[in-house]
Amino acid sequence: MTTKNHNVLLLLTFFCFSNMLTSQGLIGKAVYKTDRTVEVSLDSTKIQADKMNSIQEQLRKAMQKEYELVFTTTASNWSEIEKLGQPSMATSGVQIRVAGGGDNALLYKNTKTQESVETKDVMGKLFLISGAMKKLNWEMTQETKQIGQYTCYKAIASREVTNKVTVAVNGAQTEQKETNTETVTAWYTPDIPVNHGPDEYWGLPGLILEVSNGKIKMICTKVVLNSGEQTDIEIPTKRKPVTDEEFKKIMEKQFIMMQKMYGGGKKKGKDSAFTIKIGG
């Protein structure tokens, strides 16, 4: 079977099952675990090897999070699952502070209208970001693998990503922009015929159970379909509305403020504090 015929067959299967499940009112929940690679560059002449190892271990644990995707045929909510008794983030005299979206972050996506609404928490203040969903030009392949009980197909996409890198030297900060081509690899299952996926990812003829962009990997560990429980998809409202660009500027200002508070990354006293910026 050629790749073209294979893709046509998958799409026909997707639409047939979608029509059937739409009438049944498909409701599902999927749990994902994340694993993220973070590069840390510190002056090895000013920090001991055991403290460097402590920083790497703390970052590894901080990036291992668990999320829940609640979905219907066309809409979904993506949010972090709250953990009780989080491990201490201070060992060996080193403390890590990770700037992120906050515990109250919620992402709503509607694949029919292709619109998304997201809340993000910055130091206790919630912001509302809405706009068109980002769409990747997926290339579907015939490669398969098993994730749990589901047979998944591989899809890949490329996109240009620009990141700002802040370099601090003797308290002075300089921002540099780096643009790279990022390859996204996804594994989706036509057995769950919705085009949802974790976080910002979507647009394949089946639920995305695993996705990786080389830096962060998200893999599904549990799926529950039509359990009979009452499930509501929430569209975030009643927050301070901002555009995506405005929110990026808010995060940049927050990052600079934190850097100034801790003296460009080093806090006075016997403990050292490093602020690592993760994501947007």
Report what the structure shows.
The protein has 280 residues and is of the alpha+beta class. It contains three helices and 15 strands. The protein has a domain at 3-134 and 217-277. The strands form two sheets. The chain has a twelve-stranded mixed beta sheet.
List the helices and strands and how they pair.
Blueprint lengths: L2 H22 L3 E9 L12 H15 L2 E6 L3 E6 L9 E2 L2 E6 L6 E5 L4 E8 L2 E8 L6 E9 L2 E20 L2 E18 L17 E6 L3 E10 L14 E3 L1 H18 L10 E6 L3
Parallel strand pairs: 5-15, 8-14
Antiparallel strand pairs: 1-2, 1-13, 2-3, 3-6, 4-5, 6-7, 7-8, 9-10, 10-11, 11-12, 12-13
Number of strands: 15
Largest sheet, in brief, is: 12 strands, mixed
Instruction: Using the CA coordinates, give the radius of gyration.
Output: 21 Å
Report the structural category: alpha+beta
Order of H and E elements? HEHEEEEEEEEEEEEEHE
Determine the N-to-C terminus distance. 42 Å
Oligomer: single chain
- Overall morphology: globular
> In percent terms, what proportion of residues is strand?
35-45%
Low-pLDDT parts are: 11-24, 91-95, 264-280
Instruction: Report the total helices.
Output: 3
